Amino acid sequence: MARVQWIFSAALPLVALTGCASDPQVVSQRYVVSSILPGQDGSYDYASVDPDTGDLFIGREFGVQKIALTSGASETVLERADVAAVLMIPGTRLMLSTNGSSNSATLFDRDNGHVLGDFPTGEAPDGAFYDAASGLAFVMNSDGGDATVIDIAGRRVAGTIKLGEAPEAGVSDGAGHAFINLEAGNEIAVVDIASLKLVTRYALPGCIEPTGLAYDTKSGLLISACHNGTAK
Fold this sequence. Notes:
The chain has no helices and 20 strands. By secondary structure, the chain is mainly β. A four-stranded antiparallel β-sheet has the order 3-4-5-6, with no helix packed on it. Residues 6-22 have low confidence and may be disordered.
């Protein structure tokens, strides 16, 4: 059975030992603080931490598992088959799960598991992200080659965006654009959120099967994690 581990990270100054005075650089020191057994066998996928409660949510093959990081207590807050994403909706107690075997997404209260809506998606829904500016959640359908767009406030499917090449993780820049990794094509798809249309693709030379994706708001840089041990 796999374990869940806490990792402590501390930024430490690194001062050059040779040459003239220079600006200190910062390095990161990480080590395992603790680990727990989650209590149930089965695969894991995406995970999210609620900063207000300290609860960890994990997409499991049997549903959404919640683990209290302070005590290690665990419970299943939502029963669905093959959950991948566990997407928290900022400013609310809501969470969206993507359910791979049923080709659906579920909106629920992450405190008590109360279901507010089940939405049809494309084939094999996987990663998901939320754009706060539009109030839309984007679900990447890895086998369908598209993304299902869900209007959270309206509790409805707002549209489908054709992407191709196994979409995985995505992010938005808060200024009307969404970026989505395409695993099979080794590219990033760029979507106009207002029209829900694919507008272009960025090639990722040297990157094999891009999965995780991050956006740095200060620099405007996209950082893509690749299966061949690189980041672009």
